[in-house]
Structure formats: structure tokens, C-alpha cells
Description:
By secondary structure, the chain is an alpha/beta fold.
Amino acid sequence: MKxxxxxxxxxxxxxxxxxxxxxxxxxxxxxxxxxxxGENGAGKSTVINVLGGIYVKDRGEILIDGEDAHIDGVxxxxxKGISIIHQELILVPYLSVAENIFLNREPVKGGLVDxxxxxxxxxxxxxxxxxxxxATDQVASLTVAQQQMVEIVKAVSFQARIIVMDEPTSSLSxxxxxxxxxxxxxxxxxGIGIIYISHRLSELExxxxxxxxxxxxxxxxxxxxxxxxxxxxxxxxxxxxxxxYYTRTFCATDQTVLEVKHLTSDKVxxxxxxxRKGEILGFAGLVGAGRTEVVKAILGFDPVRSGEIRIDxxxxxxxxxxQAYARRIGFIPESRREESLFALQSNRFNLSIRVLSDFIHxxxxxxxxxxxxxxxxxxxxxxxxxxxxxxxxxxSGGNQQKVIxxxxxxxxxxxxxMDEPTRGIxxxxxxxIYELMNQLASEGLAILMISSELPExxxxxxxxxxxxxxxxxxxxxxxxxxxxxxxxxxxxx
Length: 493
């Protein structure tokens, strides 16, 4: 019997106050796609960071082709043919595709960087994978899907034998996902082993050969895809049945909180809608349809050329986000890491920053009051952490999202805008976020939710606005919501 391409045996890893990995076992075969699933905080990110040399294991063995790999850093992992494509892509936007691929390892000729070789070699790798990219393209001009392809090319250029993909489809359209899957199949055919991390269980049957389930820092089972149902995967992930995944009760009033009339910016045209007290108003559409751009115009991120915004019936002028926030409009953006989190600050700091003025006395922060509100929302939202001093970057994605929601709840908003509220969050945390949204709506909070997940939009929304090419294509009432109806207006069939 041939040895596994990769074996991780009895891997342990501790952090201060956290026992992250408790004897993890994981295997990967040559030319196999092994899906790694589990709740946020189950240990998935920790184990791939150990594999990639970002963390050094406390105990255990890592074998490649049956031999001890001795991974003690990022460079040694790369030398062993291990490449990790993180959920948050790490590319330099204003360099070309080729320059990103060969960054920090540029070939030199006559003491100068050999750009001719960089571009020719990069294009060769691109062509071998059959990708629609040019080595000369600037990364900033590429879509998220294309940038992901650049990361794949970079991994191949390192002669990677093991590629880890962390939530690779979280920001992709259906068409882009299919292109990604085609590329993954190409990598498989070359004998490359792929560890595929995803919370979208529906994807597993399409792309994975095997699924390994993590819970509480341990691997609790590994199964061939098709041998285990999605319900059973969820049960093993969370250690319990997830009942009433969507908990929405519909209780919107007729009281209009936000009214937008004929709003036009450089990116959207003639947008008109109303948001009611206690309503969850969903925004759906294909990637690039203009959903986020509507929100950015309302909040003052993008200049408005014409149109009117009314709050509680009164016209308002919002030219910058601070003015929107002062009118009690909260905003939870799609990208937590880039737009919301102070990664190297504590949970307490991240939660209280929006209401920091309440704790200031002269030149000092009233720590007791700040701690009290942090503890209040920790309990209300069941935020799991070692302490309030835990750095926010060390929390799971679901708990980070709860902290950001708490930040705005502490500010007592009357309108809360949520852009992809469950992106990169596991099924257990999703159920908790849905329950919270339902509770907030029942208390009268008006919620505008942008989501690319149609089941989420359908089950959580009172009404759905479908966007297409920067315009509203249709406003669908609850009794006419279906995936087919939404997609019909999203693509204008």
C-alpha cells in the first residue's frame, strides 16, 4: 500500500487559555480533494496553520510520503510543497499578475530583475492551467475569482504538492464557482492533493472525494462523500441536532423608517424602496449587480448624484458615513477583517469602540463601565472567548461577527444594514445569528440584509429587492419568494 501524500498524527496545539488542537489526525491522498468541515473554533484554521508552518505544533507528527516533514516555519512548509490559499487573499493590488506570482523570488539577470522571464514563466503557468488570465494584468483590475486563480497559479509555481483552500467560494458567483471547480479538477489530474475548507455543505458532493469533520479541536470522523448525509455531517460538527435553522417570525409594521426615492450614484440608478420598522428587507442579485453599491450610496461612502433619502419621514443629507451613524444607522460590512475589526485589539476594545465616548471621563476611560457593557453583550449573544482581553483575531469567525453586531447594538440603532451577515460562518453560528436577527426585528429594529445565499434571503426576509445591472429589477413580496423567481429577475429571463 502506498503511503498517504500527507499524514498528520496526534497533533496538539495550545494557546494561552485555549487548547486548540487535541490529538488531531488527518490524511490526504495524492490527487484527492479532502473537504475539512467544522464549526468556527473547531480547529480547522489552527491545523492548516500548523501544516503551513505559521504555528509550530506542540506534539505530534507530520508525514509527507511517509517521511517526517520537520515543518518549523513557513519556508520549510513551502519547501515541502505545501501552499495555503487563505480566505482573505494576500496579493499586492497594484502589481501585475506575474509580479505577484514571483514576489520576493524574482529571477535576476545582470544584477537586475529579469522581467521578460517573469512574464514568460508566469504566462506559461497560466496557460498550463487553462486560465483566462494575462500575466501583464494588474491585480487590482481583476475580479475576486480571478485573484483566486492568481493564488492558484502562485501555488503551482512553487511546485506545490498539497494546496489548502480556505473558503474559496465565499465571495464567488455560481459561474465563478464552476470555473474554480474546473481548475480544482485540473489540479487533481496532476496528482496534487487539495484540502478544501468550506461551510457550504452543498458543494461537497460536487467537488470533494472525502470529508473530515472537526469538533472542539478534534477530528471526529472521516467519510467518503456519498456515505454520509448533510444532516449527519451537521450533527457531528455541532454535537447536536440543529433544529429550526431559520427561526424567522414575521412581524413587520406599516411604519416606514427609511425611504429612498430615485437614488442615483455613479454605480446605481433610480433606486426607490421603503424599509419598515421590524422588517428584514433582503437584497439579492448576481455579484456586481449593485447591491452593496446601493448601501454605500445611502451611507455616504459613494457620492449621490440625485435622489432623496428620508428617515422617519424627514429628508436627510448624508455625505459621509459619520452622518449616517449619527442618525442611528448601523453598518456591518461584508469583509470583517478589512473593514470592521481592529485585529490586534481586544474583544472589549472592538465591542465598545462605537460608544467609547460614554466611558470617557476627562482623559481617562472608565474601565468598569466599559467592562460591564462588554460582559452584557458577551452574555446576550453567547460570545465564546477566553476573556475580554482576548485579541479579536483569535476568535472564530462567528464570534467575531457577534462582536461586530454587539458593537452596533450598544449604539442603539434604529436601522441595521448587514452585508453578507453569515459569510464564512459555520452552520451552528449561522443558526445563532438568524435567531438574533429574528429577535432584533421582533423588537422593532429595521434590518436591510444583503446576501448571496438564496435560502438565507428567502427564509429570513419579509420582502426581497432583486438587483440587476445597478437597478432594481423587482421587489418580491414574501408570498412570491422562491429561488427560481429571484434568479428570473436577477438575470432578466
